[in-house]
Amino acid sequence: MTRTAEQMRQFMRDSLPDYYNESRIAGNVVDREAEELARVGASANDVLDQFYIGSATWGLTRWEKIFGITTDPTKTYEQRREVLRGKLRGVGRVNAELIENVAAAYANGEVDVTPNIASYTLTITFVGVFGVPAQIDLLKETLREIIPAHLAIDYVFRFFTYAELLDTGKTYGEIAATGKTYDDIYNRRF
Fold first, then answer.
1. pLDDT per position as a tens digit, 20-46
2. What is the pLDDT of residues 55-98, one digit of tens each?
3. Contact, 87 vs 142, CB < 8 A?
């Protein structure tokens, strides 16, 4: 935990002998040192954050280089982290669990993988989210790299049905009146 300048200042003043309490010079030295120590602590924590994909910001470029990913600065930090998590999870023996972990990293939700040995096909069903995940193209690319080439991949997406809409107790018109588009409703973004 990094201390703020005020917390550091209080700690330093509490550590000094009482006769320094009235000294403006000692107070000024403590104030300046506390500010600098707080800055150094914050900088050290920022560097430490770059060692973890989940908290990295300016260090994401380094992570992308390690995994051989081209840096796309137009993407948000979270989108870039999804790609990195997918790559990180894609290491190991290829099985349904590994594929589920990789796909879940991109989909931000639960994924079910069903192998069909007879037809050499894997069916990946997105059960935890509605609609097509935002980074589906990157997911397809990543899975194609880790799944053996002789297996075809089918993707199944879940969309919000009219029956599910009726179960909410709202009508299409009521939801559309809030400014939501058909795509928003279809992908359950309301």
1. 888 999 999 999 999 999 999 999 999
2. 999 999 999 998 888 899 899 999 899 888 877 776 656 788 88
3. yes
Spatial separation of the C-alpha atoms in residues 89 and 145, rounded to whole Å: 13
Whole-number Å distance between alpha carbons of 148 and 92: 13
Two structure tokens written together for 157: 């997406």
Helix/strand/coil (H, E, C) string of the chain? CCCCHHHHHHHHHHHCCHHHCCCHHHHHHHHHHHHHHHHHHHHHHHHHHCCCCCCCCCCHHHHHHHHCCCCCCCCCHHHHHHHHHHHHHCCCCCCHHHHHHHHHHHHCCCEEEEEEHHHCEEEEEECCCCCCCCCHHHHHHHHHHHCCCCCEEEEECCCCCHHHHHHCCCCHHHHHCCCCCHHHHHCCCC
Residue 102: other Cβ atoms inside 10 A = 27
- Put simply, whether the predicted model's pTM sits higher than 0.85 gets the answer no
Closest C-alpha among 86, 98, 186 to residue 141: 86
Distance CA 27, CA 180 (A): 59
For residue 67, list its beta bridge partners.
none
Nearest to 64 by CA among 138, 119, 118: 138
Contact 108, 133 (CB under 8 A): yes
